[in-house]
Amino acid sequence: MSSIPDTANETITSTPTPAASPRLLPGGWLRQLGVYGYDICEDIILAALITADPLLLIGKAGTGKTFLLNSLSEALQLTHRHYNASLISFDDLAGFPYPDQDGTTIRYIETPATIWQAQSVLVDEISRCRPEHQNRFFSLIHERRLQGLALPHLEFRWAAMNPCSEDPTDELYEGTHALDQALADRFSFVITVPDWDGLSSDDRLLVADARGIDAPSLDSVGLAAAVAQGRSRFTEAPPHLHEFAAQYASAAATLFLTPGIRLSPRRVRMLSRNLIALTVIHGGQPQPEAFLHALRTSLPQPAWGKYPDDAVIRSIHARSWDLASSSTSSLWITTILEERDISRRCRQIILDAPSPDTATVAIAQSLTKLPPTLAAVFALAMTPAIQTQQPFCTEEGRSLIASHAAPILEVQGEASWRLSDHLDPATNPHPTLSACATVLSTLGPKRKARARQIFYHCIVSGIDIPDPASLEATLDKAITTVRSSLRSAQP
Questions:
Q1: Measured CA distances, 281 to 10, 168, 226, 231, 310 (Å)
Q2: Alpha-carbon gap, residue 30 to 33, rounded angstroms
Q3: What are phi and psi of 82, to 5 degrees?
Q4: Which bin fits 354, alpha (ψ -120 to 50), beta or left (φ > 0)?
Q5: What's the sign of the alpha-carbon dihedral 277, 281, 286, 288?
Q6: Rounded to whole angstroms, how far apart are CA atoms 446 and 458?
Q7: Contacts of residue 18, Cβ cutoff 8 Å, sequence gap at least 6
Q8: Structural domain boundaries in the chain
Q9: Which residues of the chain have pLDDT under 70?
Q10: What is the pLDDT of residue 12?
Q11: What is the pLDDT of residue 415?
């Protein structure tokens, strides 16, 4: 195959490029904070830190819930408040109230324990509040407000509780109450933490070692940097990932109706956010096991003592994954075909395709449905991408681009631009011959060589060129975008 002239001095090399970004943190980072036995939860915990959505831990007494959450605040160097919900009074949260000088407003005398300056808060033993008292935490958890006043510094809202049961005769812990369902529905992740019987033998020894309790919760693992990077990835997640997560969450909520498990519309939106957060942690590509893990820990029912059967969850996950996979590919292709800017279309196919098969379908549809001039631009611009080993499409997609670009790339050198050898203006006049020649006279060597290829191909193929200058500018922008996209995809 003939090579396409480059727009810069560097050349595209055939270096394999992974389809996803690196993980935010390697496994086992909680151990480095002195927290053992929570390996299965650490991706979920990191996802909750990325979204800054409320997090609830459910576990038996002594399972390290409080230690874990306090350790996170230390690692992130947050101004932290830890309240025992079974003992706290309103004054502990807000401080002592006093009227302002004008007598129209109330202010509060702050103490080191009040919440006004807090960046993170842990409401411990929240299930030991009666439901009527749990509501005092509702606006705090849901709105970051207290007595209607905003808490501008508060970012993380965490809570911990012992297990409870729907069955009034099944008293797991005396004094515990099922969490009010409206309050429970405000927690994005609801994690049931492991007890002693869920720990490995190595973790049991680490937990049993009294020195483990004194392990400093310093940010030696780069947690703050990982959270910052994760938030950047989360806010910049591509449209197809949002669409995939929404399709999956919508399907799961509908399928859960059959076994009588209700997910509120708010919960479905939370599930979508959780799925996206887990995906960016794992590098940006949806993974079935990560979605299953997110689904398990996004159900609020354990907060009021109801634990859905895991076999049901697995079945609903599998069906939701299949439905989302088929729906998202079609939606993504439709979106691509509606994109009239060839540069953006090329970039999305290289960087954002849900799968290589889907990218190949988009390539085939583009080459057949675009106007002939733009189809030629698309094929020529995408040629550098297929000359690399980047796995953005299948071999079939590469072949389609190559076959469409081949006749364009055959135009090489000044001799190929002797139009009189192929077209006689006297018998077959072409209205854009002089316009093409004018555009060529204004270009530098590299752009001129490319423009000559596309102009010649259109003319000998009988393709009208309404605006040669616009066509050349579109081609140059598309090729520049493709090369930029290839560099962005490199590790």
A1: 33, 40, 9, 10, 24
A2: 5
A3: -125, 115
A4: alpha
A5: negative
A6: 19
A7: 283, 491
A8: 34-321, 342-489
A9: 1-20, 103, 131-133, 165-175, 211-217, 411-431, 491
A10: 28
A11: 42
Q: Calculate the alpha carbon distances from 316 to 185, 192, 214, 312 in Å.
A: 20, 20, 42, 6
Question: pTM of this prediction?
Answer: 0.70
**CA-CA distance, 333 to 216, in Å (whole number)?**
50
What is the model's pLDDT at position 170?
55
Two tokens at 292?
A: 């299953």
Element holding 449 (H helix, E strand): helix 445-460
Show Cβ contacts of residue 428 under 8 Å, excluding neighbours closer than 6 positions: none
CA–CA separation, 183 and 44 (whole Å): 20
Rounded-to-integer distance, Cα 24 and Cα 222, Å: 10
Phi first, then psi, for residue 383 (nearest 5°) are -60, -40
Q: What span, in angstroms and rounded, lies between the C-alpha atoms of 347 and 243?
A: 18
Q: How far apart are CA 74 and CA 163, in angstroms?
A: 26
Nearest to 94 by CA among 132, 73, 121, 66: 121
pLDDT score recorded for residue 6: 38
Question: Encoding tokens for residue 261?
Answer: 């498990």
Residue 175 is predicted with a pLDDT of 67
396: tokens are 């079939």
Please name the amino acid found at residue 150: A
- Name every residue whose Cβ is closer than 8 Å to that of residue 289 and which is 6 or more positions away in sequence: none
| Tens digits of residue pLDDT in 209-256 | 876 555 556 788 899 999 999 999 999 998 889 989 999 999 999 999
What is the C-alpha to C-alpha distance for residues 314 and 294, in angstroms, rounded to an integer? 12
Token readout for 351 is 């960087």
Question: What was the pLDDT predicted at 461?
Answer: 85
Long-range residue pairs from 40-46, CB within 8 A, at least 24 positions apart, any chain: 40/194, 41/191, 41/193, 41/194, 41/297, 43/278, 43/281, 43/282, 43/290, 43/293, 44/189, 44/191, 44/278, 44/293, 44/294, 44/297, 45/72, 45/189, 45/191, 46/226, 46/227, 46/230, 46/281
pLDDT of residue 211: 67
CATH 3.40.50.1820 fits 34-321, yes or no: no
Q: Where are the alpha helices (DSSP H) in 151-287?
A: 181-184, 201-208, 223-235, 239-256, 265-281
The pLDDT assigned to 103 comes to 66
